Please model this.
Amino acid sequence: MDKNSKIVILTGAGISAESGIDTFRSEGGLWEQHKVEDVATPEGFARDPDLVLGFYDMRREALAKVEPNAAHRALAQLIAGHSGKVLLVTQNVDDLHERAGAKNVLHMHGELKSALCQACEMRSAWEGPALLSRPPCPVCKAPMLRPDVVWFGEMPYEMERIYAAIRSADLFVSIGTSGAVYPAAGFVRDAKDCGAATLELNLEASDGSAWFDESRLGKASELVPQWVDEILRS
Ligand code: BJW
Model:
């Protein structure tokens, strides 16, 4: 890699784990505490909207109590300091990349601090009150807001921009994701097909480890600053 390399970075729940946010599939993770089909599908929401609204209100409240960690800060440094293009795509619905100073982050699975109106389909920045209390949409006033997150069976956001960046990338880096959820889990193969080098930084081997040119195993708070240092010195 040189100072003009084009880099696409994909992050997952593992990068926020050391900030105190639960991952999904680890022991004791969110999918052990809640049934995924109840809280992360449109069908679950139609069956029991209060359960789903309460689940996301709880996670938005928890987010207010945590801080970005060294991995989020290192990526923000990379974006500010690298001369080539860097696209940061996150599957995370938290705002820890932004709070660490990263600009133009693509949240492909939506954001906890955004609400989506089921009546007018507008997305609005959302700090509260709880969606469970059925507040009115800031745009059309209908009390029909849902969390602006992407559930199973729904189309993730910004796919065209992500695939365009992957097609021209020199390096694709995946950080803190199990590689269990598509389309994100397929990005490594797309990047390889388009000629990019591929690197994984994760606590343990992911479902897609075999697809990466290199896998470094360990904590994001250690691996990410080391890797960013290597790139910024190259
Ligand atoms: C650390 C660490 C530390 C811990 N340091 N590391 C059959 C085959 C293929 C696909 C499908 C299929 N059947 C159905 C599908 C599609 C489906 C899918 O993928 N299902 C799978 C279960 C198979 N996907 C969809 O429905 C998606 N939409 C879609 O496909 O639309 C059609 C389409 C077609 C063509 C192109 C494009 C689209 C939508 C998926 C929506 C996922 N939504 C969720 C919830 C979002 C809101 C919320 O946050 O509640 O997104 S589910 C959940 O999983 C969340 C996450 O973003 C996502 C990924 O999880 P992540 O981030 O990887 O977390 P974990 O917990 O799994 O892993 C954490 C990792 O970190 C672990 O490896 C740890 O070891 C590591 N770690 N501590 C470093 N300190």
Notes: The chain has ten helices and nine strands. The two ends are 7 Å apart (CA to CA). The beta strands are 7-11, 86-90, 106-107, 110-117, 123-125, 145-149, 171-175, 197-202, 214-217.
